[in-house]
Amino acid sequence: MNYPLGFESGRFKDVTDQLAVVREALTGFTDITSPGIVPMDFEWQAGWDILNKREKGQLDNRSPRTTEPQYQTEDDRRAAKAP
């Protein structure tokens, strides 16, 4: 199937698509009789577009990554540093 990595079980928040992907995958238990790769007829170009935007930093609104510990609250920081 032509979906980006991380979406192997269907489009994000699209229950109908997810069920279709899983149903077709399950047919492999009865239809596949020898080792190999069987293509699935699913394509989601918009998923690749989302992934490309994320890689370019256009969709990533997380805090910058550092080697310093980060805490949600001051209480969490104190608890982590307590002996």
What does this structure look like?
This protein is mainly alpha-helical and 83 residues long. It has one domain. It contains 4 helices and no strands. 5% of the residues are buried.
Report a brief summary of the structure.
The protein is mainly α and 83 residues long. The chain is 42% helix and 0% strand. The chain contains 4 helices and no strands.
What are its keywords?
83 residues, mainly alpha, 4 helices, 42% helix, elongated
Largest sheet: none
Multimer state: single chain
Strand tally, please?
A: 0
**Helix/strand/pairing category:** mainly alpha
Task: Specify Rg, calculated over alpha carbons.
Answer: 20 Å
Helix content: 40-55%
Shape: elongated
Q: Write the element-wise H/E pattern from the N-terminal end onward.
A: HHHH
Tell me the β content.
Answer: under 5%
- Chain-averaged pLDDT: 84
Which consecutive residue ranges, at least 5 long each, have pLDDT under 50?
none
Number of domains: 1
> Could you give the distance between the termini?
51 Å
With helices defined by DSSP (H or I, 4 residues minimum), what is the helix count?
A: 4
Task: Please render the helix and strand layout as text.
Layout: H1 15-26, H2 28-31, H3 45-55, H4 74-81
